[in-house]
Amino acid sequence: MSKKKKPSRPSVVSVVAHATAAEERPGHRRLGLVLGAVVLAIVLAFGAWLWAQHSVPSPAPMPLAATQPLRTIGSQSCIGCHAEQAAAWQGSHHQLAMQEATDRTVLGDFGDAKFAYAGTTATFFKRDARFYVNTDGADGRRADFEIKYTFGVTPLQQYLIEFPDGRLQALSIAWDTRPRAQGGQRWFHLYPRERITHKDPLHWTGLNQNWNWMCAECHTTNLKRNYDAATDSFKTTWSEINVACEACHGPGSAHLAWANEKGKQGVQPDKGLTVRFDERHNVSWRIDPVTGNATRSQPPAARKETETCGLCHSRRTPLGDGMAHAGRLMDSHDPALLSAGLYFPDGQQQDEVYTYASFLQSKMYARGVTCSDCHDPHSGKTRLSGNAVCHQCHATEKYAAGTHTLHREGSAGGSCAACHMPTRVYMGVDARHDHSLRIPRPDLSRKHGTPNACNGCHADKSSMWAAQAIEKAFGPPDRHAAGFVEALDAGRRNEFDARDKLIALAENGSMPDIARATAVAALRGMPGGRTLSAIEAALHSESPLMRGAALDSLLDYPPEERYPLVLPLIGNPVRAVRLKAARALAALPPQRLPLAGQQQLAGAFAEYVTSRQANASRPEARLELGLFYLDQGRSSDAEREYQAAIRLQADFSPAYLNLADLYRALGQEGRAEAVLKTGLARQAGDADLLYALALLRVRQGLRSEALPLLKEATAKRLDNPRMAYAYALALHEAGRRDEARAQLKRAHVRFPGDREILYAAAAFAQQAGDHKAAQDYLRLFATLAPDDPRVSALAKARTP
User: Fold this and answer.
1) Residue (of 634, 631, 655) closest to 645 by Cα position
2) 10-14, 187-191, 424-428, 530-534: which has the minimum mean pLDDT?
3) Which domains does the chain have, with CATH numbers?
């Protein structure tokens, strides 16, 4: 904020460019946090002292088997001793996850079948016993492409095409393998409501249909992507073409050696296994006759099974090239939280998120249920059919009764899954169950926009009808049993009390860790002492999800506040946490720490760079690496990474934004403008690029050109408070003060908890002589930010 000479007349800002002071943009951050020399010295000295006070833990030791050289041995080496498990695996989705294209494996119609889409007709045919498709390639021209592999078996099958640079690309036209009576036995496009041409990143030849990065590690065993950034090519390898034994159990050489040492097996109690799934051993469940629910005979000592399944059955980002088989997902991946667009605010699945994060929310997980309590891990099928799998733990006489199901016994609506695991269709035909196993809450649908199982079937009825039916049968819903929907929805809507609700959720130990971590992540952009205290508490949580979310949120805080909090986590045993800590410490000069601290920090930095380089085929990884280099003062390296991200994906706007911001910081406004114009030429109408160009026009003194750009950007991004704020400031400076106030009023309705909008509305109302409105806005602002010095300044101000 700029300051005026007369404190009695506070000003919002003097130029629109200052609107970026609190900018929140995905993949985009401000450049150049300048610390005073004295402050920096104090911070670094404190960091050295802190280092001396803490015994920074080293990564946890691996199991005994992992201390020996490990190698994969192949599923054939397992069958001799594990014939029953191998037989169950045969024909499973895992065993058939990927296959070479042959007459036996290809299920689609390749008898000159045709399929029209987006102005192009694809033809599927055979030639010389090989399978081909004639369709549009990366240049938009039709050509013949050979099918190299099949991908999946039911309810659809995709086809992979190999290119000379080592890429395998997944064709977006898939075969519906369901019976014809169910609408199957046809070709269909995975994006039927869109018009995906060769210019779209979702085209089958594009980045987002690349098998090597998007799909490969979960459809093969022992995958190594082997991406070469210098040549932008892959030399991907795997030991088995499907999801075989070692995909879950890890390399088996030590276990095979243990099995072959006759009479010496007792030497290794872990049996040489990379990860031993023993949390269900000697465990029983007893159904309480009063409640009708089962209790586990002992709490789980570990979650290795769920964590291992989560390696593939989760929405996550790889941290390197390959899986970590240590029974902990966050040693090799960073799982997605319950973010908007992925999950509804109550945690129900929205986008294609798979199962892991949903299951973590469930009461079943909290009480010790594992994946294989319900599913046979080798066949993938449920252990019992229909409701019987649920009645293992829930008394049949209580839960199968019509008084509980509200449906006729044996009917589709009377199934446990219909109400507690409703499906959502992905990839056009694939209905997948939500594994959060929640009680239907139609009473929440109207307020929070969440789906409910009742109206999923009774689509002709209202959510109010469904809520009344449930209340009639079971009584009024428990307000306290609504879970975390109130807090997460408030955060997404930027409601007035969102911060308080999110902090309460973050501190509520009875809520699922993944919901609490989501709350911590949502606190980013909501500054204040209470927020920082909540983030600091999350850093000390036993949950790595909480620690990771807290480290991400700390990136918004100045280094002098961040470093002392982050330093103790640099040696955290969980890899995802270590990497996030390294990212948060990127700007810390290692030479200011003791020698041991320097060595560990250098190791953490090297591990971070390696993790991002392993994913260098993705523009997001290149952008993250650029931001890391920038914090270290390596502007030329940052520039190189941003440019690489643009080469990988020509319409990746975050790379343009950061590259332009880099040039701005270097005083090269001409180059910054050229970058933004290039980005807009490749992605016309992108709101973030329009906004950045508008701010550049302000810096150039061309406010009349900035206004229409801000107006367009704000109209396209009604969910962005900073754009609405900046547009109001620009209108005010242009003398269009009534329009500015109207804009702020609308913005306040959309973002009632936004401080800057409230402050600007109060200041503008005061300048206009509307003291009542000014006082109303000031009261709200003071409630949100009681320690902000602008509160007293506004309160003391007098109009002439």
Assistant:
1) 655
2) 10-14
3) 1-29+653-800 (1.25.40.10), 98-219 (no CATH), 285-441 (no CATH)
CA of residue 688 relative to chain centroid, distance: 21
pLDDT score for 67:
53
Q: What is the DSSP letter of 128?
A: T
For residue 82, what are its two tokens? Answer: 């594990």
CA 628 to CA 645: how far, in whole Å? Answer: 14
Give how far Cα 435 sits from Cα of 341, 353, 356, 387, Å: 18, 11, 8, 15
What pTM was estimated for this model as a whole?
0.90
Instruction: Pull the structure tokens for residue 659.
Output: 């590259």
Q: What is the crossing angle of helices 703-716 and 687-699, to 10°?
A: 160
State the Cα–Cα distance between residues 677 and 759, nearest whole angstrom.
33
**38 has a pLDDT exceeding 50:** no
Q: Cα Rg for the chain, rounded, in angstroms?
A: 29
- The tokens describing 699, both together, are 């810096």
The alpha helices in 200-310, defined as continuous H runs, are 211-214, 245-249, 253-260, 304-309
| pLDDT for position 790 | 87
DSSP string, 751-763: -TT-HHHHHHHHH
Return the pLDDT at 267. Answer: 67
For residue 264 the two structure tokens come to 């010496």
- Give the separation between CA 486 and CA 345, rounded to whole angstroms: 8
Nearest CA-CA partner of 616 in 199, 222, 213: 213
Question: Residue 431: enclosing H or E segment and its boundaries?
Answer: strand 430-433
| Pairing of β 130-136 and β 120-127 | antiparallel
Work out whether the CA dihedral 400, 404, 410, 414 comes out positive or negative: negative
Average the pLDDT over 14-26 and give the result: 33
- Residue identified by tokens 């041409």 is 197
Contact 431, 423 (CB under 8 A): yes
- 382: which strand partners? 375
Cα–Cα nearest to 604, from 640, 632, 630:
632
Element (H, E) at 678: helix 669-682
Tell the residue number behind the tokens 């290809």, with chain if given.
106
pLDDT in tens, 142-162: 999 999 999 999 999 999 999
- Return the biggest CA–CA distance within the chain: 97
Task: For the chain, count helices (H), then strands (E).
Answer: 35, 17
pLDDT in tens, 710-760: 999 999 999 999 999 999 999 999 999 999 999 999 999 999 999 999 999
- pLDDT, position 798: 52
